[in-house]
Amino acid sequence: MDKTMAQKPILLIRPPLRFLANRNRAAIDLPVGLLYISSILEREGYKVRLIDGVMPPDDYNQIHSSENYFGITFEYMEEMLSGVDFDISGISAQYTVQFPNVIRMAELLKRINPNCKILIGGAHATIQHREIITENVCFDVAIRGEGERTVINVVNAIQGIGSLQEIKGITYRDNGQIIETDPAEFIIDMDNIPFPAYHLVDMERYFGLAKKYASRTAYTFSGWERGVSLITSRGCPYHCSFCSINLHMGRRWRYHSPEYVLNHMEHLMREYSVKYFHFEDDNLTANPKRFEKILDGIIARRCDIRWDTPNGVRADTLSLDLLKKCAQTGCTSLTLGAESGVQRVLDDVICKNTKIEDIEKVASLAQKTKVNTRAFYVIGTPGETAIEINSTVTHAIKMIKEYDCFGSIGIATPLYGTRVYENAIRNGYLIKEMTSENIARGYNISGMLKTDEFDPDFLSNVLEDFYKKLSRLLKWIFLRHICTNSRLFFYCVKSFFTVPISQWGSIYYKIIFSHHALLWDIEHDKN
User: Residue 117 is part of a domain; what is its CATH number?
Assistant: First the structure.
């Protein structure tokens, strides 16, 4: 059967984003997961229509006063879909906090075409697959884990080639019964996955929106908006109690070869003039030799790019030589997964299997090799004491003062399937419902857990105190940077006279957080 001739297009959709009312800034990125699924479907001969509900036709607007929707309105989405002839649709459900919009999207599709089959995939769908299929008749099949191979089998089965019960890694409804098949094997030969189908989205429109609403950019320079997220590996062998990545991608670390990664980057540079790469791997540096080959390839191919690691890397995988190559290849920021400033918490509570001395050592080496660093911390994990929580804040301040390693602190959120969630349920620590709103507020406002050592109010006060101290500290660091480096001083003076007042804040923060990257640009006459 010639699928491109005989079949209607497979409709893939990322729903609009939904945020709390106090969120006043939209955030745009590419639907990387759906682009991978699209490329696999196209390789197998299927036509694909991808609608990115996060990319509006004009600009972002706040639609409701009680909550914000960013992207295409559902009214406009209905107009768009009314002219699309489809029988199968796949919807991305990556985040729990966005799931209400996923349901709304599926219900809209069923109203338009009651006989269509709706597939749901992504991290949330993987972990909550049985609940989703049981409670929501609008979904027909949940694809668990990686979707590239499974989606082909499901689409073929719906088209009459094979049956659903033979497919591993899915959950579906059959005559009122919920059928959960055996888990699918993870993809080992990662290089067999084609590059994402970037041609299915308006890349220029995306870059234009990114200039105002980029979600991942930590540093701005000429052409920074032409940035793309890359995922060069999957899986996590570690056992952090708050993390759910292994539930979706498994514990075995699997990766693209350095050659594949470099060819992917050159493809984006050649076809779309991409200048900024955000390595979104959970374990980019798990194999330091592989990481070094990627850096060596960037040097050998003379790639004029900038890059960062917004999801974080492990400090104990980095060396002085690697950090030198990070600086040489255009790294604007390395984010370290510090998690806690207390070794007992790292060992016994979070189970991070890392040492504070390694984190401090790498931050010090990065400072010497002129690589900007940041750090992630999390507080409020059951088993942590109030004293240890405050000690983590103290450590975050220390890292800023001594190493210019800027920490952000979040509150442990009991994500479905994690040991934090299971512990909270088992011991009665969870004091708020697992709604998307509470989860969204839980991470950076007040938390959802209460133990004998802390409650949401305590954690909220700790965060408030930290950010007050941070605000004062940043002013001191700004003055230190411009008073100890003449290039930064004259850049600041020049910006005062040439940059609109509305952009002075970005200059201030660039000098604080990204001074090494900024100095590199100044020295190479790029800023």
Answer: 3.40.50.2300
What tokens were used for 14?
A: 């990322």
Q: Are 327 and 238 in contact (CB under 8 A)?
A: no
Please state, in angstroms and rounded to a whole number, the distance separating the CA atoms of residues 449 and 428: 9
Cα angle 519, 521, 526 (rounded to 5 degrees) comes to 150
Whether 352 contacts 340, CB under 8 Å: yes
Rounded CA separation 295/284 (Å): 12
Q: Using CA atoms, how far apart are residues 516 and 117, in angstroms rounded to an integer?
A: 52
CA-to-CA separations, 309 to 331, 333, 378, 404, in angstroms, rounded? 9, 7, 18, 17
Residues 395 and 453 in one domain: yes
- From first CA to last CA, the distance across the chain in angstroms is 55
β-strand pairing of 177-180 with 331-339: unpaired
* Residue 341 exposed, middle or buried by CB count within 10 Å (0-12, 13-18, 19+): buried
Question: Could you read off the pLDDT of 350-364 as tens digits, one per residue?
Answer: 999 999 999 999 999
Asked if 397 and 453 sit in the same domain, the reply is yes
Structural tokens at position 256: 């693209």
pLDDT at residue 4, as a whole number: 44
Helix axes 356-368, 320-328, angle to 10 degrees: 40
Six-digit token pair at 205? Answer: 């429109």
pLDDT tens profile 36-84: 999 999 999 999 999 999 988 776 655 444 456 678 888 889 998 988 9
Does some domain include residue 197?
no
Contact yes or no for 121/151 (Cβ under 8 A):
yes
H or E segment and range at residue 498: helix 486-498
Residue 19's domain comprises 3-180
Contact 32, 196 (CB under 8 A): yes
Looking only at the bridges linking them, the beta strands covering 170-174 and 141-143 are: antiparallel
CB 168 within 8 A of CB 174: no
Rounded to whole angstroms, the Cα distance separating 160 from 162 reads: 6
The whole-number pLDDT of residue 58 equals 72
